[in-house]
Amino acid sequence: MKQRHMASNPWLNAQLHMGTQTAVSRYAAETLRGDRPEAKQLFDQLTARVKA
Fold it and tell me: Is the pTM of this model over 0.70?
């Protein structure tokens, strides 16, 4: 989300209930690297472009 929006890590953390403030960056990096396959699958589904 930080790639496209101007939300801070503390704000994202509070809204998403992700633990510590550093967890947002860590979880996002792990997801994009493929270290969290279930999260990566959800991310890909959420960010897929719909073909018209």
Answer: no
